[in-house]
């Protein structure tokens, strides 16, 4: 059978993504560092420590590798606690260092994308209630003003908040992230304030940089009914999708944050996206289960035929990626895939995962879905939050003790796709 090749659009963005706390090292002034010091919070007692030592300068060699392997962009985040170490203090030296990194990216031919908030909060903010405090909106707006004013000449793509749905769910419903609460109403308050903060940031960025493009990064997990013929399974899958996938995004469309029976009108939030950032990793089946009240009566599990990652954290379900893209297209905005990847220290699943998901991306583009870029998670193994160093998402392996980087076979696979701007059909 003859194999054809799909050519991605000219100017398509090919890159990788990282976040500040996961790669910089010694971010001791945020709530995650404090969380790591508490017994039982991080798997095996792991700590971020030096992380990937980007604050010590190792970003240079990592971004050299990205550029040498034909990536043309990189998504990084700014560490709020470095910029504003205390409520009345701004650190211009840290801003200058980020400016140096951006200059270094551009000199390597890498278009920057900046994330302003990627899970980590300044310690002073968390001590005052964090995102539950209504003042968090003005705190974030002031921080955004400072960062954008300093860095706008070297960046035009902005992500305001990364995965607010994950931040609220893991931190305020499941208790896996700081502050470790299990209170759905606290999660609701956090998400309302994050909608307002995104809105303030969007308007701030466009005031300072009219040509900027601004979005947020949505973590989308496809929830399909375990039995499509079951009304109860369909209901359980639908309610989980509405709360986890849809609530935040729809608030930025119509100005209403709907969370089950609770609705908050935020009219200024309407139409505050220039593109939709989509983070997709996996899909689940959902079966109605009366014993799962804490999970909205939906028992989630992976499709039985799906290939699983080494810790069984992710199932390879590329069809779910295609479903996600078809759902996001309904909002009528350009789409940038801001994260997609799999944990795989042996690099056995990752080649299949990358190619199968990019084929679904190509399929969607063929059908007219406006996808502008793809950021693989991640460039190099990094500190994976409450899972510590147990998961290996990097194209390059990292030994956190020696800081040695080792390329995995997937480096060449992704490099060839980036270089040719194409992928062969299956």
Characterize the structure shown:
Strand 13 (335-339), helix 12 and strand 14 form a beta-alpha-beta unit. This protein has helices at residues 20-23, 31-36, 54-68, 80-83, 92-107, 123-126, 136-151, 164-172, 184-208, 231-254, 318-328, 350-366, 410-420, and strands at 5-7, 13-17, 73-77, 111-115, 157-162, 213-225, 256-259, 262-265, 276-288, 298-301, 307-308, 315-316, 335-339, 371-376, 396-399, 404-407, 422-424. Helix 7 runs parallel beside helix 9. It is of the alpha/beta class.
| Portion in helices | 25-40%
Strand order of the largest sheet: 2-3-4-5-6-9-13-14
Low-confidence runs: none
Number of strands: 17
Overall, the morphology is globular
Radius of gyration from the alpha-carbon trace, in angstroms: 20 Å
% residues in beta strands: 15-25%
Mean pLDDT: 97
Q: Could you give a short description of this structure?
A:
This protein is an alpha/beta fold and 426 residues long.
Notable features of this structure?
13 helices, 17 strands, alpha/beta, 426 residues
Task: Detail the topology: elements first, then pairings.
Layout: E1 5-7, E2 13-17, H1 20-23, H2 31-36, H3 54-68, E3 73-77, H4 80-83, H5 92-107, E4 111-115, H6 123-126, H7 136-151, E5 157-162, H8 164-172, H9 184-208, E6 213-225, H10 231-254, E7 256-259, E8 262-265, E9 276-288, E10 298-301, E11 307-308, E12 315-316, H11 318-328, E13 335-339, H12 350-366, E14 371-376, E15 396-399, E16 404-407, H13 410-420, E17 422-424
Parallel strand pairs: 2-3, 2-14, 3-4, 4-5, 5-6, 6-9, 9-13, 13-14
Antiparallel strand pairs: 1-17, 7-8, 9-10, 11-12, 15-16
Helix pairs in contact: 7-9, 8-9, 11-12
């Amino acid at each position: 059978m003859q194999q054809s090749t799909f050519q991605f659009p000219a100017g398509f963005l090919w890159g990788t993504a990282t976040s500040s706390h996961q790669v910089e090292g010694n971010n001791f002034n945020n709530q995650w560092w404090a969380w790591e010091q508490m017994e039982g919070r991080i798997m095996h007692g792991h700590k971020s420590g030096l992380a990937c030592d980007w604050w010590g300068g190792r970003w240079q060699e990592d971004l050299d590798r990205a550029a040498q392997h034909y990536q043309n962009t990189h998504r990084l985040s700014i560490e709020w606690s470095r910029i504003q170490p205390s409520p009345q203090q701004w650190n211009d030296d840290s801003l200058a260092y980020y400016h140096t990194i951006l200059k270094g990216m551009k000199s390597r031919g890498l278009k920057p994308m900046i994330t302003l908030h990627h899970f980590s909060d300044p310690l002073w903010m968390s001590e005052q209630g964090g995102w539950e405090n209504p003042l968090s909106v003005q705190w974030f707006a002031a921080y955004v003003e400072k960062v954008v004013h300093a860095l706008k000449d070297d960046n035009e793509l902005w992500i305001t908040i990364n995965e607010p749905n994950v931040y609220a769910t893991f931190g305020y419903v499941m208790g896996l992230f700081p502050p470790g609460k299990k209170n759905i109403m606290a999660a609701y308050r956090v998400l309302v304030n994050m909608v307002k903060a995104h809105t303030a940031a969007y308007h701030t960025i466009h005031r300072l940089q009219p040509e900027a493009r601004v979005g947020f990064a949505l973590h989308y997990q496809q929830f399909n009914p375990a039995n499509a013929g079951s009304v109860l399974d369909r209901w359980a899958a639908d309610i989980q999708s509405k709360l986890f996938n849809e609530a935040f995004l729809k608030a930025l469309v119509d100005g209403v944050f709907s969370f089950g029976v609770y609705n908050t009108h935020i009219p200024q939030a309407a139409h505050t996206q220039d593109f939709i950032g989509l983070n997709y990793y996996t899909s689940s089946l959902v079966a109605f289960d009366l014993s799962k009240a804490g999970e909205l009566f939906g028992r989630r599990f992976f499709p039985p035929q799906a290939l699983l990652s080494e810790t069984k954290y992710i199932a390879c379900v590329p069809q779910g990626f295609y479903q996600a893209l078809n759902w996001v297209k309904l909002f009528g905005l350009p789409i940038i895939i801001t994260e997609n990847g799999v944990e795989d220290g042996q690099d056995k699943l990752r080649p299949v995962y990358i190619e199968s998901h990019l084929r679904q991306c190509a399929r969607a583009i063929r059908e007219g879905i406006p996808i502008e870029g793809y950021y693989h998670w991640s460039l190099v193994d990094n500190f994976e939050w409450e899972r510590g160093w147990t998961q290996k998402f990097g194209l390059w392996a990292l030994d956190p003790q020696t800081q040695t980087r080792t390329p995995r076979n997937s480096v060449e696979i992704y490099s060839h796709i980036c270089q040719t701007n194409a992928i062969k059909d299956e």
